[in-house]
Amino acid sequence: MAEETPKKKKRKHDFFAEDTVFEMPMSQMIDCVFLLLIFFMSVSTIDEARHSKDVELPVAKNAAVEQDESDRAVIDLEWNEIQYSVVLKMQGNPYYEARDIVPPLEQFSRLHPVKGRVVIRADRQVPYEFTQEVLAAVGEANIASVLFSTLETELPARVPAGGG
After folding, report:
1. Which residues neighbour 118 within 8 Å (Cβ) at sequence distance 6 or greater?
2. Is residue 9 one of the residues assigned to a domain?
């Protein structure tokens, strides 16, 4: 009879055992972390550069300067072209829907029932549909006087920070 060779038993390795130690080359891992860090820093800087928080007013040749700046509420419409959306700001508070400004406008209307007026400062890039929604919110708050803020002449081009 032929001698049988003993079969080698395959030993299962328990990866979850406490005594299991794995060596991982950390230099490659650190390189990946730095590359990801640089990528996200550059992308966030580009996104911030596209979105200006200042409102660029449109030009109107026959614009008149408002003499009395009391009894008015100012609504800024800041345009975000990337998301095709507008951020409304009233008294420093941001609103993302025009209907959300109705309660503060109603409160303003109660405080200034006769001479109260709303000044809309819309960025020149804002499509009219967003301005129309704001006008509807002003009408819902029962404010009859609305002014649009414009420029008489074009402003000179802005120089980026750093003199670039």
Report:
1. 72, 73, 74, 75, 105, 108, 138, 143, 145, 146, 147
2. no
